[in-house]
Specification:
- This protein is mainly alpha-helical.
- The protein folds into 2 domains: about 15-80, Arc Repressor Mutant, subunit A; about 90-120.
- It is built from 5 helices and 2 strands.
- α1 packs across α3 (about 55-65) and α2 (about 40-50) crosses α3 (about 55-65).
- The N and C termini lie far apart (about 50 Å).
Length: about 130
C-alpha cells in the first residue's frame, strides 16, 4: 500500500474492523492512498495483522459502502476514483516545499514567509 501501514490494537475497546476502516479512511483523506491504489487482499492483510479474514472483509465492506473503495473479482479492492483528498496535490507540494527549504537550511519561519509572499500576504509584524 505505498508504504502505508495499518495496525490493530487487540486490547483496544474499538473493534479491529473499525480500526482498519478508520485507518484506511484517514490514509485516503490525507492523500497517502490515492485513487486506484490496490489494497492488500483480505487474506494477506489478515495474516499481516494476525486477525481473522472475516474482520478485514467487514472493514472492506464498510469502506465500500461509504464509497471509499471498490472491490472487483479478480482485481481485488482498490481506492475508488474520486475518493482521494480534494487537496492532495497542493498538500504534497507543501510538504515538498518544507522538505526542500529545510534541506537548504531555512528555518520554518522563513519557509512560512515564502508561502505568505506567494499568497501576497505580508509576514506578521511587517508593515
Amino acid at each position: 500500500m505505498n508504504g502505508t501501514t495499518l495496525e490493530v490494537d487487540l486490547g483496544s475497546s474499538v473493534p479491529p474492523f473499525e480500526q482498519i476502516r478508520r485507518q484506511v479512511s484517514e490514509h485516503i483523506a490525507a492523500g497517502r492512498l490515492e485513487p486506484g491504489t490496490r489494497l492488500p487482499t483480505i487474506r494477506d492483510l489478515a495474516a499481516d495483522l494476525g486477525i481473522a479474514p472475516g474482520t478485514v472483509a467487514r472493514a472492506y465492506r464498510e469502506l465500500e459502502a461509504s464509497g471509499l473503495v471498490t472491490t472487483r473479482r479478480r482485481t481485488g479492492t482498490s481506492v475508488a476514483p474520486g475518493a482521494g483528498a480534494p487537496h492532495a496535490a497542493p498538500r504534497r507540494a507543501a510538504h515538498h516545499l518544507v522538505t526542500l527549504g529545510r534541506e537548504h537550511g531555512m528555518p520554518d519561519d522563513q519557509i512560512l514567509d515564502l508561502v505568505r509572499a506567494a499568497l501576497g500576504k505580508p509576514a506578521p509584524g511587517s508593515p
